[in-house]
Design goal:
Blueprint: H1 7-27, H2 32-52, H3 56-79, H4 85-98, H5 100-125, H6 128-143, H7 148-151, H8 167-185
Helix pairs in contact: 1-2, 1-4, 1-8, 2-3, 2-4, 3-4, 3-5, 4-5, 4-8, 5-8
Length: 187
């Protein structure tokens, strides 16, 4: 079902996402040095671990495809200012560690967990009605080929007017949930 993830890569993944979550929660940013370390380790360890089995090119391709798929999905969200650059780069690093097939599972779990955390935050902030209005606005703007953040500052992740959530926390929880699900159900 899911391609195997070497225990060393699992450990690196946990260290990366937990550190990123802590930074994102405290400072609302994910440092470039952390993401770069994740990318270097993702590419380097995948290449080295597959080289032991005589397939170094396979490890390099696995890391590149994982990173590429993450950027393919997250970079447009960054361009629409729906996601921060650090979030996109962190997911690219996660992709380079786990590979594209596993990254899809991490992405789905991150989306579910992030949605639940976001709904809880909206409920406590009393912004459910405004959020539905914003969703309609976003869809209208996209259907008219306009970036939603240009007409409404609260739809810009960089704006103080919008409600923001540290997505690095959701990425960490999604990545750890992936490892747990993988350990429990995949033999």
């Amino acid at each position: 079902m899911f391609p195997p993830v070497h225990p060393i890569l699992q450990g690196v993944l946990v260290l990366l996402v937990v550190t990123a979550a802590i930074y994102d929660f405290r400072f609302r940013r994910i440092p470039n040095w952390l993401v770069l370390a994740g990318l270097v380790l993702g590419f380097g360890l995948n290449t080295a671990l597959f080289a032991i089995a005589g397939m170094q090119a396979t490890g390099l391709v696995r890391a590149a495809l994982g990173m590429g798929l993450a950027l393919l999905i997250y970079f447009p969200l960054y361009l629409l200012r729906a996601m921060g650059a650090g979030d996109a780069k962190l997911m690219a690093a996660v992709g380079s560690i786990v590979g594209w097939g596993n990254w899809l599972a991490v992405f789905v779990l991150t989306a579910i967990i992030g949605g639940v955390l976001g709904a809880i935050a909206l409920l406590f902030a009393g912004r459910i009605r405004k959020t539905f209005w914003n969703i309609g606005w976003i869809l209208n703007e996209i259907l008219h080929f306009r970036a939603p953040y240009q007409s409404s500052p609260e739809l810009d992740v960089r704006s103080a007017a919008g409600m923001r959530m540290p997505h690095g926390v959701a990425i960490a929880l999604g990545s750890i949930a992936f490892l747990i699900v993988r350990a429990v159900w995949v033999k």
